[in-house]
Amino acid sequence: MDQAGIITIISVALIALGLLFFLGAAIGLFRFPDFYARMHAAGKGDTLSSLLVVLGFAVYQLHDFDFTFSTLEFNLQSWKAWMFHGDGLIILIVLKLIAICAFIMITSPTCTHALMDAGWEDGIEPELKEKGANALAKDIDG
Amino acid sequence: MINFDQIVVWTGFAIFILMIPALLRVITGPTAIDRIVAVNIIGTKTAVLLVVIGQKFGRVEMFVDFALAYALLNFVGSLAASRFLHKSPPKRGGYEE
Lengths: 142, 97
Hints:
A: mainly alpha; two-stranded antiparallel ribbon; 4 helices; 2 strands
């Protein structure tokens, strides 16, 4: 199998895995009974699925990238053809997509934490099996 | 050889369809923060969807910048909303002076 086929299969696998995690996040967000349980499904599933889908597209950008430098010669034309794909610099596109990944990986848990904290301060009650099973319940009386 | 263009289209379609439960959570969410969480998820997925659209149009180098800016704005927006709700009078514990 050639390079384009292998890279396409890797990126399709990453994208499919991301969509699977997003399916879990969506079902969890819709069906869980409790604010905190919904938050748990949303935070984790959303972060990982965004990461995987964007990473899959980052991998696909390299599908006609020449890793072996076989087309390079001592003229500007071949260097341009090696570095650019259409109008864009391939390495720069991949770096920007990885930057989106890193950004989502930092900000999405931060958002989840801040919103969960806001919900707790706002007085949303978790659903418990029996009263008093909540380890944080002693905070309620301050 | 897989036809990647078709897979890109179906990926965008799947992301769009899976946004609908989050949208229903925005409509029916019992509390305000439920709605903010669902809007946050829709925003993150919109950033991903921009990358998908860029791949379909063959202009990823342009749409990647849009996606980055959108992710940033989404983060700032939901963080501001959470801080706003945090500053409302605490109903339990919280920061006592």
